[in-house]
Amino acid sequence: MMAQPLSSAIDTAFKSNIVPDQEYLLQGSVLDKVVEVLLHRLRGLCDNVDSGPEPFQDHEMCFTIRTTPTPLNLRVRRALDHQEMPWQLRYIGQPEYGDKMRPTIIRSSIDIGCSATVVEFLTELGCRMEFEYIARGYMFRKGRMKITVSKVFKMNQNKSQESMEPLSESYLVELSVLAPRGQDAIAEDMRSFAEQLRPLVNLDKVDFKRLVHGPP
């Protein structure tokens, strides 16, 4: 039997809805002074109770390339605390907020492992880096759900980690699931889990356009 070409196999996989190309997302924030209380609550609710949360320190760069009708957004992330790990190239589509009854944001998301030359490759393609930052915090797991609690730091000119400046006096909290299309029941599970974290943090659908431009 003739082997199926790789491009054809990938196309078939997407059409069969077996590729996790969609992200369900809720976001919120918690002040520095109460983040330990939230971490304690997550230790009790999540799967990695015995081993504890997984610490991480990532450097993320956000690129855009001008396309029609909307720019294409790409993100490159590398683990500063695990230099041996491959870099990650990620495509993120425009968020779908839907009606008010939809529990989460839904957006297209595709992750690809790559080498450190990916930044040079994107630059040669004509991509422009819009901004970069360091995210340092903890990751928890609850079934298919991933929960991150991270402090966001601004990159300085010499890119020294010793003199990083925090962007705010709070931590970013994200609850997300990567899944194939059409599994909207996941969003209800996420809403139920988010309710267990109130009133410490309010995880919700964040419309960043409204934050920047205000209500219509």
Automatic annotation (TrEMBL):
<dbReference type="Pfam" id="PF09637">
    <property type="entry name" value="Med18"/>
</dbReference>
<keyword id="KW-0539">Nucleus</keyword>
<dbReference type="GO" id="GO:0016592">
    <property type="term" value="C:mediator complex"/>
</dbReference>
<dbReference type="GO" id="GO:0006369">
    <property type="term" value="P:termination of RNA polymerase II transcription"/>
</dbReference>
<comment type="subunit">
    <text>Component of the Mediator complex.</text>
</comment>
<dbReference type="GO" id="GO:0006357">
    <property type="term" value="P:regulation of transcription by RNA polymerase II"/>
</dbReference>
<keyword id="KW-0010">Activator</keyword>
<keyword id="KW-0804">Transcription</keyword>
<dbReference type="GO" id="GO:0070847">
    <property type="term" value="C:core mediator complex"/>
</dbReference>
<dbReference type="GO" id="GO:0003712">
    <property type="term" value="F:transcription coregulator activity"/>
</dbReference>
<comment type="function">
    <text>Component of the Mediator complex, a coactivator involved in the regulated transcription of nearly all RNA polymerase II-dependent genes. Mediator functions as a bridge to convey information from gene-specific regulatory proteins to the basal RNA polymerase II transcription machinery. Mediator is recruited to promoters by direct interactions with regulatory proteins and serves as a scaffold for the assembly of a functional preinitiation complex with RNA polymerase II and the general transcription factors.</text>
</comment>
<dbReference type="InterPro" id="IPR019095">
    <property type="entry name" value="Mediator_Med18"/>
</dbReference>
<protein>
    <recommendedName>
        <fullName>Mediator of RNA polymerase II transcription subunit 18</fullName>
    </recommendedName>
</protein>
<comment type="similarity">
    <text>Belongs to the Mediator complex subunit 18 family.</text>
</comment>
<keyword id="KW-0805">Transcription regulation</keyword>
